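Q: What does the assembled structure look like for these inputs?
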Amino acid sequence: MATTQTTTDARGIVEPSGDDTEFVFFSGKGGVGKSTVSCATATWLADNDYNTLLVTTDPAPNLSDIFGQEIGHEVTEIQDIDNLSAIEIDPDQAAEDYRQETIEPMRELLDDEQISAVEEQLNSPCVEEIAAFDNFVDFMDSPEYDVVVFDTAPTGHTIRLMELPSDWNAELEKGGSTCIGPAASMEDKKADYERAIDTLQDSEKTSFAFVGKPEDSSVDEIQRSASDLGELGIESQLLIINGYLPESVCEDPFFEGKREDEQAVIERAEREFDADAMATYPLQPGEIAGLDLLADVGGVLYDDDEATVDVGSATNVDTEESVDFDPLTDPDAVAEKLQPVDGETRYLFFTGKGGVGKSTIAATSATKLAEAGYETLVVTTDPAAHLEDIFGEPVGHEPTSVSQANLDAARIDQEQALEEYREQVLDHVREMYEGKEDTQIDVEAAIANVEEELESPCAEEMAALEKFVGYFDEDGYDIVVFDTAPTGHTLRLLELPSDWKGFMDLGSLTKGAAPAKGDQYDNVIETMQNPDKSSFAFVMYPEYTPMMEAHRAAEDLNDQVGIETAFVVANYLLPEEYGDNAFFANRRAQQQQYLGEIKDRFETPMMLAPLRGDEPIGLDELSAFGDAVTGLAELTDKQTAEVPHQ
Amino acid sequence: MTQIQLYEEAMCCSTGVCGPDPDDELVELSAALDQLEDEFDEAEISRANMQHNIEAFLNTEEIYDLVQENGPEILPITTVDGEIVAKEEYLSYDELAAELRANQSQEA
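A:
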């Protein structure tokens, strides 16, 4: 098997080399098998007589399923494996604890109303990052273990965590309090943070590993994340590509083609990714749980064993019954959520983790809506911006027409947006000092100060949001489709207007803010909350982690901004006509099982979209693909819709 | 050595550059404080806001009493060597500079 290049170099990376505790971090998006690989690695280390601790900060941990044992928020010994303990940290709980710790001393001085105002302020992404990082710091002092394996939060988030400590130290040295928060009261933690950063940057003590799928988008994202880490002096040492199609099960051209694409991606990753080691593990017919399969994964990754793929038996689902996805859907209910009501502009938001195909779904929906006669604008906020690839035409910062009638597309360019925002703020500051010539203030120094402050992560969020809100004022569209950034980021963008409104009402932060801006955000939030004007759709593929992540994001959206999910999109459904063997029968049955769970969990209409041989490119392919997607063939023509019903 | 201490409301970002619009008052204040620190060797300036430096409020009886009596609306408070010189509003660069000069001539 020349294509599955399992090297034992991976072993040298995760295996402790000295007397001091060593740390292994696994980074990667949800659904790539990060938990599996972390568990397998921890198990392998324990089996090799290293005293091992496994830490997960996954908000929807499934360690209990994998080990067949309840774990929870305390360090727990794994029953059937010597030398192995594990802990699941709930990031929401950690953030809440942090908030309460911060507020407690204020109770003495402030009344309930004032306290709740402060509480509102602490409900910020920054605070969640701080709380999450504290957990890392806590476990980075664990002398009783030979090795600590972290099954970290998804990639973008992880990067944030890693970036923050350097920022914090810079802020602490300045002595101010900033958006990132800590200031003097955190001074005592400074030493801990510094030690944590040193450890993270010390490749003798710490190993960074990425887990991804054999897909270009997955490898691209890993490369971006790895280069971010590289800028912070953190070297990515190991790349694990998980879930490639085993050769033995790809008997027809459809899956043979898929397999060839995957192998090309693996070769590309090997060529381009500057890691010390790389390893691969195949897709299994069912989910990886239980100690035998974990041992198989560990053996393949670190001992150069051959993978065992038992094609027929590994799932607990009934594969005898033929699988039919259609009864799970109601196409008209989906179509209803896509179209404008009473001639008001409809805003469609497709959200979900990277790699779930939401750009394609957004572009396909936009194409079909335009075909039905609706003036449609499709906007991407995805930094990776696949829209150009999808439409096969250039897509710029401003809405431009693509060759389909009624259809325009635009891309929010993060850097350009940030530049525009910076200019806007600096202009504002310059204006502020105009007409104050008599002051002895050094205006240039003041501007330089502000300019420095704008080099913050907050400024980036702000800039993206400014642009995003701007698209709500675009006139002349029946429908605006947003192909949003991956969930966490999106949520932050959406939460921020509410947070700011909080600040504004409080009056403490933005005393001088123009009221017009507050009104603008009010309107945007109201529009997003109105189910006749806006539809939020979560795109996922029907597997455990993607489903849980999407559900959590949907709940956050509802709890924090009061927005209900309009429908869910289950993408990459295995087509019935290909893969006629036990392996794919198992996979299909498993997808059906999760479709049922998604339906129960979300209680919304479902849009189903099939796995394709190749991603649709160009308007003809998008249109053809749209015919196979629930609801898109059932759209009411705009002309028909405008004729009043009798 | 002259100690200027500011007591401020709970806020996320004391520089004023965080949010949809910069906060003019805070931007101006931050610039003023930076400049004063450069210009007056003997000046020591620090800021405490309720969110991040609650101990400064709890440990200073006069401030504690004022906030408890009047609520956070009494903030910001500015003190020079422990003496309250302003309540409910920030002092401008010129006012702060005057305070510092007055203090220095006293010492001299």
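Residues 74 and 87 of chain A are 6 Å apart (CA to CA).
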